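request received
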Amino acid sequence: MRLLAIALGLALLVAPAARAEDGYDLWLRYKPVEAAAKGPYAARAAAIAPARAAETPTLKVARAELERGLTGLVGKPIRAAAGSRDGVIQLSVAPQAGLSDEGYRIRTEAVNGKTTTVIAASKDIGVLYGVFRYLELIQTRQPVDKLDIASSPKVKLRMLNHWDNLNRTVERGYSGQSIFDWWRLPGHVDPRMVDYARANASIGINGTVLNNVNAKADSLTPPFIAKAAALADTFRPYGIKVYLSARFSAPIEIGGLKTADPLDPAVAAFWKAKADEIYKTIPDFGGFLVKANSEGQPGPQDYGRTHVDGANMLADAVGPHGGVVIWRAFVYSHEQPDDRAKQGYSEFKPFDGQFRDNVVIQVKNGAIDFQPREPFHPLFGAMPKSNLGMEFQITKEYLGFSTHLVYLGPLYEETLRSDTQAHGKGSTVAKVVDGSLDGRKLTVMAGVANIGTDRNWSGSQFDQANWYVFGRLAWDPEADTRAIAADWAKMTFTNDPRFVKPVVDMMMGSREAAVDYMTPLGLHHQMGRSHHYGPGPWVAGGERADWTSVYYAKAGPDGLGFDRTPSGSNATAQYAPAVGACYADLKCVDEKDLLWFHHLSWDYRLKSGDTLWNGLVKRYGQGVKYVDGMETTWAAMAPYVDAPRHAEVTDYLKIQRDEAQWWRDASVAWFGSFSKRPLPPGEKAPPKTLQEYEAMTFPWAPGI
Amino acid sequence: MRLLAIALGLALLVAPAARAEDGYDLWLRYKPVEAAAKGPYAARAAAIAPARAAETPTLKVARAELERGLTGLVGKPIRAAAGSRDGVIQLSVAPQAGLSDEGYRIRTEAVNGKTTTVIAASKDIGVLYGVFRYLELIQTRQPVDKLDIASSPKVKLRMLNHWDNLNRTVERGYSGQSIFDWWRLPGHVDPRMVDYARANASIGINGTVLNNVNAKADSLTPPFIAKAAALADTFRPYGIKVYLSARFSAPIEIGGLKTADPLDPAVAAFWKAKADEIYKTIPDFGGFLVKANSEGQPGPQDYGRTHVDGANMLADAVGPHGGVVIWRAFVYSHEQPDDRAKQGYSEFKPFDGQFRDNVVIQVKNGAIDFQPREPFHPLFGAMPKSNLGMEFQITKEYLGFSTHLVYLGPLYEETLRSDTQAHGKGSTVAKVVDGSLDGRKLTVMAGVANIGTDRNWSGSQFDQANWYVFGRLAWDPEADTRAIAADWAKMTFTNDPRFVKPVVDMMMGSREAAVDYMTPLGLHHQMGRSHHYGPGPWVAGGERADWTSVYYAKAGPDGLGFDRTPSGSNATAQYAPAVGACYADLKCVDEKDLLWFHHLSWDYRLKSGDTLWNGLVKRYGQGVKYVDGMETTWAAMAPYVDAPRHAEVTDYLKIQRDEAQWWRDASVAWFGSFSKRPLPPGEKAPPKTLQEYEAMTFPWAPGI
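response:
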C-alpha cells in the first residue's frame, strides 16, 4: 500500500489535474491503447535504439516524437541498442533504393536475431515522416508485427498558404487570429509554433507561406525578414520551408523606385538584392508566392508587361538560391469578361512553355472561386509545358465558415479524379498535379489554411479533418478520402467502431449536403456579399457584375443557370474536346454540374422526372435533412467522446441546422419569385417574406 | 509491485500526457501541497458537507470549485454531513451580522463536537468568495486549523472594462483577440468564458463591460443583446453582471431618429425602450458605460446639452430596473485647452450634486492618460455630492505592452494612498473610491482589462499579476500591494521562499524602473505617436497639440517640464489648497512629480546635488540597470519554475532590456539636443544619431 501511495502521489505530482480535451492535440493525442490491444504494440516498442547516424535536429525531433508517442500509447520505451533485444525500434538514415528524398521505409527485420522495427530513409526528414506513420499505425490499431511499408510523396511542394495579415487578422479566417505573432517575433517564438510544425510534418506538409497573397510590402523589410527567419529556424527541423507572398509593387513601396516594371533593370536588381538579403538569413527560404493583377493587386500588366515577364524576373532573383516563384492563375482583371470562368485559361494558356523552370502556376481547383462545387479548372491539362500547381481552400469561405460540419475530402477527391482527357482517358487532374502526366518535376499542392489561434486550431473539431485530409492528399493525390477520414476520426476521437463507422459516413456525405442546401444542381456564388456568409441570391449591382449572385445564377422567368455551352459563353471549349462536349450536352453532363453549364427552363425535366423547379426545391430540403441526420448521429456519439468536444460539435451542428434551413428558405423564396410555380407537394413555404430575408445584415462577420 | 503497476497505469489513463504549464490556469492552479506541509490541510479537508441551503447555481459552482481546489491541493474530499466527523467543510447561507451582502466569514467551529470549517455568508455569492479565500489560504500555505476570518468588499461595483471591439480587435490590447466570440454567440459559448468568470470571482470582480467605450451602436441591436445575454447567463452564477458601453448617438444609428439630443422626448423614449428590451433578456443587466464628447465620440454637447443632461437621461432609462450609468470623466473636447490636465476637472466639478443617484462619474487615476506616473486626478475629493469611480488601466498601453514586466500594484497603491486633503489630512483617494469620505453608497473601481485570447490570458505571465492586484484592491483599496504580489507569486508559481522573496522584490521595483527608463522625474506622454510603443519625445505637429510629446515635455534651451504652478497653467489650483501649494512649491513637491508641475533649467539642482540634466540622464540609466537586475534575478529562478513559463519570461525580459536601453538612448539623444550639455561621467553616448531614432517606424503595432 505504501508503494501504491507513492505511485499515486507521484502521478498526481506529474499531472494533478488532467485538462479537459479541447482539440489542441489534433490527431496527435497519443492516448493509451486499450489494455486488450496493447500487447503487440508494447512488444514492438520495447526500446528505441540510438539513431544509426549523427543526430541532426530533424532526427532529434523524430526520436522525441517517437518517445512522446510511444509513452502515451504504450508506456515509456527505454533506450537500447538494436539487436540487443526484441522489440527495438531503429531509426536509420542511409540511401534507400526506390524512395524519393523524402520517402521512408518501415520494415520488421532481424538484427542479431532480434526482431527490430527499422524506420529508414535516405534523408533525416524521411525518418521523421516514417515515425509519424509508425505512430499512426498504432493510433489506428493496425498490426505492426510484420511491417514492410515504403512511401514517397508524389508531390514535391506540399504547402499551406496562410492568408494572414501582419496585424494578425486572417482573410477568410474563422478560427481566431493569425498564429503568427509578428509583433513579438523574433524576440519570442510562441511554443505553439512547434506544435504547428509537428502537426504539419505528421501529414507531410513541407512548406508554408506566412502572409496573405494580398500582401503588404512591409513583410519584405529587414525587421519582418528577421521575424520570418525566427519561424524558419523553428520549422526547419520539421522539414518545413517558409515562403513569403511578395507584393509586386514592393520596389516602389520599400525600394525607393518609381516603377515596378519587371523589365526595368533597377526593378530586377531590387528583387535580386532582396532575394540575396532574404537568403542570407533564411538559407533554405522557399520562394515567393505572387498574386498579380487580380482584385486590385499590382502586377506586370500595370506596365504593359505579361505574367511571363513578371514571374520570370522574380524567378531569376530566387533561382540562384534554389528558390521558386509560385504565380497564381487566379486573375481577376479590372475589365469584366463575358464569362468570369474563362479568364484564367484565357490569360495563361497562351504562355505555356514560356515560364522559367522554377516557376509554378498555381491554379484554383475550379474556375470561379472555391465554391461548394465546381467543375475542375480548364487549365489543368492545358499547359503541359508548364509547372501547374493545385490551390485548394481548406478554410471554408463559401462553406459555412467553421460552424458548418463539411468534410472537404470528397470535394478535393472529386477534382483530383476528374479526367482532363488531355492525353486521352485517365489524364486525371491528380496526374497533372503530381507531374506524371507531362513529366513535370516541380509540383505543388497548396491549401489555403484554416488555422488560427482558436484553441482547437481550425475553429471546430471537424475542420481539423480538412487540414488533415489536405496534407494526406498532397502526399498522395490519389488517396482515398474515406480511408483518410477514418484514420482521422480514430486518431482524433476513438477507434471504437461504434463511433468510427457512423461518423465517417456522416463526414463523407456532409459536403454534398452543403452543396444541396446552398447551391444545388450546379448553382454557384449565391452567398452574401463580401462576407460570403449565408444566402444572398439577390446580391446585384455594386462594383462589378461578376461579384454578384445574379450574374452567376441568371434566374429569370424563363429559367435558371449560366449557359457556358457554345450557344452561350462557350467556356466548355476551354476543356479537351471530349470533356467540353459532354459538359455542353444535356444528355451527357452530370446533373451536379447542370446549371453551371446550362440555362434551363423551370420546367426542364430532371432525370428524377421532377421539373427543374421542383427538383431544385427538393434538393435544398435534402441538404437540410442531412444536417438533421448529422445532429441525430452526433447525439448518439456522446458515449464515445469527451464532454467538451462533444458539446462544441453539438452547438455547431445546431447552428448549421438553423442556417441550412435559412439557406433553403431564402433561396426558395428568391428563385420562387422568378419561377412563379407552386412548391412541390409536402414542401413548406418559407416562414418569412423575401424582403425579410433580403433585409438581414451581418455586421462584424469574420474573415473579411 | 502489481499494485504499483495498476496505480501507475491508472494514473496514465487519467492523464497520459500532462500538458506543459502555459499560464492558462492563472493563480488557480491547485497543485498538490508538498508532502511535508499537507497534513494539516488534509485534516481540515476531509469532507464537504451538503450546503445548508437550497443549492443555487452559485452554491453549485462554489462547491464545485471547492472540490476542484481541494482535489488538486490535498486529494479528493468525500461528501459527509457536518458534525459526523472532524475536518468537514460546511458551506452556509444565513444572515451574517457585520458583513455586507457580498461578504463572507470563515470560522473553525465545533459541530456535534467535531471540528468543522464553516464558510458562511448572507448570500450565496459570499460563500463563493469565501471558498476562493479558503483555497487561497491553502495555496499560500497559511494555517487553517483555527480560522476566524471575516471580509466584506469596500467597493460596491468592482469591474473590468473591456475595450473590445465587435470584430474582436482590442483597443490597447496586447494579449491576442477579444475573448468575446461575438460571431459564434449565442449559439456557442466558449468554455473559456467559465474560466474567465472563475478567475474574476476569485478576486471579487462582480461586473464586466463587454465592449469598447469607443462603442458601436450595433452592440445595442437585438442580435447583440442576445449574444450579451448568453454571456450574462454564463457569468451569473459567479456573481458577475454584464454592462454595455453605449454609443450616445445610437438613437440615430439604430433608432431611426434624427437626433440624439438628451432632452428630446423621442430620444429619452428610445433609451427607455432600449433599456426595457435589454432587461427583458438580461434581468440583472448592470447598466451603461458612456464615453461622451471625448476623442470624437458623440455626446450631449453635440446638442448644446451638458454631461448632466446626458447622464441623467440614461440613468432614468435604466433606473427603474436597478441599473446604473457610468459616465466617464475622460473628456477630450475638440477645443484644445491651455492645459489638457485641467479639462476633466473644469468640465465636471461645476456639476457636483446634479447627477442622479444611479450615475457614477468614472475618473482615470490621473489627469492625462494612464502614464507610468501621474499625480492623482484633481476630481478626487472635489465632487463630494457625486458618486466618483476610479478607472485604472490594467493593460499596459503606456508601459511597454505585454512584453515589459511592470507590476502595477505600486502604481495603483500610490494613487489610492494619495491624500486629497479634501476634508483635511487622511482624505485619501481610497476613501473617495470606497465612498467613506463623503458617505457615498454607489462606489466603483474599474480596470481596463488586459485579457485576450492569448493562452496565458494577459499576454505575459507577469501581467496576470496586474489583473489579480486590481481585483484585490477593488475589494479593499487600502490593501498592501506587496502582500498581494506575494500571494500571487505563491499561487501562480511556488511557495518556495527562495522564489517568492526575490521575485516579489523584483516586481515591487519594476514600475519605478519603467518610470525611470521611460519618463523620469515627472515627464509624461513621451511615447511613439498613436501606438504609444517606444520612445517618441520628438512627436510634434499633427491633429492636435495635446496628442504630442513636445506639448508635455516643453523641452527647450532654457530647460524642461510643464509649468502647472500659478505662474503657468495653474493646474495646481484644482487641488485642495494645501496639496496644490505643495505641488507648486519646489521645496515641497516630490521630485517624482517635478517636471509634471515645473519647468526648470537644465542646471536646476536636484536633491542629489546633480543638475537636472545630469540627474535625468542618470535616472534613465537606473531604469535600464533595474531591468538588467530583473534578468539576473529571473535567470536564478529556473530551478523553481517550469521550463515553458520560465522561457517565456526570459524572452520578454530580454525584449524589455533592449527596449529600456532604446528608451534611454533615444531620450538622451533628444533632450541632449536641447540641453547641449555633456553627459555625466561614465554615461555612454547613444549609439545612434537622433535622426536614426526618429526614423524608426513600427507598422502593425498591436492595440490601435
